[in-house]
Write a structure and sequence with these properties.
Strand order of the largest sheet of chain A: 1-16-15-14-2-5-6
GO cellular component, one term (chains A, B): cytoplasm
Number of domains of chain A: 2
EC number (chains A, B): 3.1.3.41
GO molecular function, one term (chains A, B): phosphoglycolate phosphatase activity
Strand content of chain A: 15-25%
Helix content of chain A: 25-40%
Order of helices and strands of chain A: EHEEEHEHEHEHEEHEEEHEHEHEHEH
Oligomer: homodimer
Cofactor (chains A, B): Mg(2+)
CATH superfamily of the largest domain in chain A: HAD superfamily/HAD-like
CATH architecture of the largest domain in chain A: 3-Layer(aba) Sandwich
Radius of gyration of chain A: 20 Å
Number of helices of chain A: 11
InterPro entries (chains A, B): HAD-like_sf, HAD-SF_hydro_IIA, HAD_sf, PGP_euk
Distance between the termini of chain A: 32 Å
Chain lengths: ~300, ~300
């Protein structure tokens, strides 16, 4: 397997930047760490824009809609334009509307948060679940009193801080009683980083449905899965050869780029260390790597 | 593979009953269907008792303690004696106390219901979680505010109608931050039957932990897993050769008996049909089968 190229001086950067028109950029671990902006990140993005590059911020986190992400960019004082954000919640809504052409007389049962429902609303897709099933008291529960909405034709599951048994029972029942019901996940990250540790992620939240149904989802809209790239390529009319995925995580960002025949650039400001890609037994290798995306601003002078 | 023997007349029954001193009997689908007692069941149990057989009711349902099961037997007017009930919640408490000899200065973090906590209390095992973490509001949540109890040395997960993200995050954190922390499930049934359908079961409730940790549990205390039989054999000083497992489900009850070198009797009052065991490709085959456990009373005359 070929070694990744470390970008370390101005001419490396020039050659790298000349190869691509579009950069897909992961957020957490690349442009920010929770609420702290990576040093020189604003300047790096500004330089890419000056060179006429197209930027798309691509995140697996389904808790935020594009509107929610925009607020975070603005709060952190990072320049952002309409159409530059592509989270897994939006990818799910885009996929339903434009890839599978989900019928307008059907509804999506949502296990998830406001990030998902805002994106479904923005695409004009009807839904049930989500906020309406947050309140649940197990002491009142009888299995006979599940009410099924006959218009539900898909279940979409993402990270849900308000997960409960009612949501699992309803989602399971829709999928179990109707084999034609679509089963989608926003993303399948088993964990995500927060507060210096990790916590169960969207893939963990969906695991009871996969286990109880003994069925994998029909599509997972987050990296490294292909349906997310299908959405991006269709929406942006992308040329994969002139596109580079920039990320901090080998198993999602870099694999996503490799699977899609994109260029790949790993940054070391997130979860991956240099030794992870230089080891003899390294299995996912980016084309390029740099210490930080901020280095584009400081070294390319 | 040998064909199962159908018990169909008095001499079949005599020969069958003579082979065993102890009968392990599943509950749901064998002695009752939800709240309806199987016809002639009371008479069948009475006949077994008259012949001096030992009976043990063995259930994977962790929602009830032995005390809870006793109430159900009494409500359904089925004769029951102390020491005749062995549910997966009790098996978990017994396993912690007598098999792994869980230290008395440690606590078990419980994802589950009152069935589990009653049994831990009865065995003098200290615990955290369960009822104290039922109330949770995701809108207040920050990942930094998880408080870990340093005395927790095991996580025990069973069916939990009041499952929420706080419980998952805490259980994950105990196991993730302390590789020595024991990880136990009461049972791994992916679904259970109720109201003429099925719903996500204890195995589904535990799936987010298994997915997020990328780790299987150290022991599963329900059928068909061996740790439950280890508890029963030790507690009752059983001779497996003189013991027969009676159940309605091939993948739990009958496999449990086969794995433990017990005799096995399938009843057809639950989820399994005769064709399932007579099919060419049948993989789990009981030694014997009958239409209903009630037949022991009516045919053995």
């Amino acid at each position: 397997m070929s070694k990744p190229v470390k970008l370390s001086n101005a001419s490396d950067y020039e050659a790298f930047l000349d190869k691509y028109d579009t950069f897909l950029i992961d957020c957490d671990g690349v442009i920010w760490l929770e609420n702290i902006v990576i040093p020189n990140l604003r300047e790096a993005l500004s330089l890419l824009r000056k060179k006429g590059k197209n930027l798309l911020f691509v995140s697996n986190n389904s808790a935020k809609s594009r509107k929610g992400y925009k607020k975070k960019f603005e709060k952190l004082n990072i320049e952002i334009y309409d159409g530059e954000i592509f989270g897994s919640a939006y990818a799910s809504a885009y996929y339903l509307k434009n890839i599978v052409k989900f019928p307008s007389d059907k509804k999506v049962y949502v296990v998830g948060d406001v990030g998902i429902t805002e994106e479904l609303e923005s695409e004009g897709i009807r839904f049930a679940g989500a906020a309406e099933d947050v309140k649940f008291d197990g002491t009142d529960w009888t299995f006979a009193n599940i009410k099924q909405d006959p218009e539900v034709g898909a279940v979409l599951c993402g990270f849900d801080i308000n997960i409960n048994y009612l949501k699992y029972a309803k989602a399971y029942t829709y999928l179990h009683s109707n084999p034609g019901c679509l089963f989608l996940l926003t993303n399948d990250d088993s964990t995500f980083p927060a507060s210096g540790s990790t916590f169960p992620g969207g893939g963990a939240i969906a695991a009871p449905l996969i286990t109880a149904l003994d069925r994998n989802p029909d599509a997972v809209l987050g990296k490294p899965n292909k349906p997310m790239l299908d959405c991006i390529v269709q929406k942006l009319s992308l040329n994969p050869e002139r596109t580079c995925m920039i990320g901090d995580r080998l198993s999602t960002d870099i694999l996503f780029g490799i699977n899609g025949n994109l260029g790949t650039l790993l940054v070391l400001t997130g979860v991956t260390e240099e030794k992870d890609i230089l080891a003899e037994n390294a299995r996912i290798i980016p084309d390029y790597y740099i210490s930080s995306l901020g280095d584009i601003a400081t070294l390319n002078t």
